[in-house]
Amino acid sequence: MSPADQSATPSAAPTIDELVEQERRLILPKFDHEDAWELGSLLVELARERRAPVAVDITRGGQQLFHAALPGSTPDNDAWIARKRRVVERYACSSLLVGTRFRAKGTTFEESSRLDPDTYAAHGGAFPIAVEGAGVIGAVTVSGLPQLDDHALVIKALDLFITD
């Protein structure tokens, strides 16, 4: 398999409308500890297939339900996970969508959010776990690839998880 085949990168950065549609489409009927294990394991499997040096994290209600660090990942990936996850928790949407909305206004999250960039990062890779009738209850986050690749890997896993 060539490196291009291993990539989860979309051909272009998703638009705001595409990112909003992902969030509308990827709402779960429920999400418990077993679901976190299954989704996290699926993400690890997809990352291993690509030999991606990532860390994967899933939280619900402030509790870490899943975490894995694959070969090549570093402690910096855990710091990025925490920063991206906080964006999802604060804005109740994906970290990539938040950053894209700021860029669409001609600015950046770091310049205009008034939030500490050491605490928050509006870079792709964190996605809200939303449950029907409950809203956003947690986040699934990947760190270790370029931000569009991190985001695409999460979306691929959620698509597969929902259709299973």
Could you explain the architecture of this structure?
With 164 residues, the protein is α+β, with helices and mostly antiparallel strands. It has helices at residues 3-6, 16-25, 33-49, 75-91, 95-104, 109-112, 147-163, and strands at residues 27-28, 55-60, 63-69, 126-131, 135-143. The protein has a 5-stranded mixed β-sheet. Helix 3 (33-49) crosses helix 7. The chain is globular.
Summarize the structure.
The protein has 164 residues and is α+β, with helices and mostly antiparallel strands. The protein is built from 7 helices and 5 strands. Helix 3 packs across helix 7 (147-163).
List keywords for this structure.
globular; five-stranded mixed β-sheet; 164 residues; alpha+beta
Helix count from the secondary structure assignment = 7
Helix content: 40-55%
Estimate the global geometry from the Cα principal axes: globular
The pLDDT mean sits at 93
Task: Determine the strand fraction and express it as a percent band.
Answer: 15-25%
Q: Span from first to last CA?
A: 25 Å
Q: Topology of this protein?
A:
Elements: H1 3-6, H2 16-25, E1 27-28, H3 33-49, E2 55-60, E3 63-69, H4 75-91, H5 95-104, H6 109-112, E4 126-131, E5 135-143, H7 147-163
Helix pairs in contact: 3-7
